[in-house]
Amino acid sequence: GNSVTQMEGPVTLSEEAFLTINCTYTATGYPSLFWYVQYPGEGLQLLLKATKADDKGSNKGFEATYRKETTSFHLEKGSVQVSDSAVYFCALSDPGGSYIPTFGRGTSLIVHP
Amino acid sequence: GAVVSQHPSRVICKSGTSVKIECRSLDFQATTMFWYRQFPKQSLMLMATSNEGSKATYEQGVEKDKFLINHASLTLSTLTVTSAHPEDSSFYICSAPMTGNTEAFFGQGTRLTVV
Predict the structure, then answer these.
(1) How far apart are CA B35 and CA B13, in angstroms?
(2) I need a surface site. Which of A43, A89, A113, B97 has the fewest CB within 10 A?
(3) DSSP 8-class letter at A11
């Protein structure tokens, strides 16, 4: 079956540091890949997505590249801010198109001033 | 972008009472909606898939009689936690896919506390 593996958190960084959150996946076929962000006490918001190999999703300074050869979709940001503190979920969509995403466990990011 | 609205955002209820949570798609029709439960510091657990005009599909281990789901229209799904107990306290999130999109859109979540 499908699965998503994320690095365990929390990830603690100082403001303006470089961020990488690793994500690898297992799936049959060609899934779409997503990063969702959850701020404290809120639901999930789509941060970025990529629908095919070598696509790069980007938003708000975050980016991730769909690497089919390594089955990875690592999230990166060059300079984090305190406001980026949240939980980040890597996810893939069912290749059959049912839109039920498979989520990773989530990685908590804490950014200190 | 597409918006999914969930209400209420927070609710506190007494043990033994029932609580209804609403999930609405505001600018698109959703024949399918998903209900998740999230425990502290954990990922989302899919509870059930809500289907407009038909019975919901529950995931293994989820009690159908405790978590009643109704999808009466193309823009509204409700989750009713019946005879709530403190162990039902959790964060519940709904989501809905929009036809033609690969991603699902999420509600703001409902923090349920049973005292």
Answers:
(1) 20
(2) A113
(3) E
Instruction: Pick from A88, A99, A100 the residue to mutate for testing the B interface (most B CBs within 10 Å).
Output: A99
**What is the share, in percent, of chain A residues with pLDDT greater than 90?**
71
**CA atoms within 13 Å, Cβ hemisphere of A50:** 23
CA distance A15 to chain B (A): 23
User: Which structure tokens are listed for B74?
Assistant: 């193309």
Q: For the segment B37-72, what is each residue's pLDDT rounded down to a tens digit?
A: 998 877 889 999 998 888 999 999 999 999 999 998
**Distance, CA of B63 to chain centre:** 14
B108 touches chain A (CB under 8 A): yes
Q: Could you tell me if A93 lies within 8 Å of chain B, comparing CB atoms?
A: yes
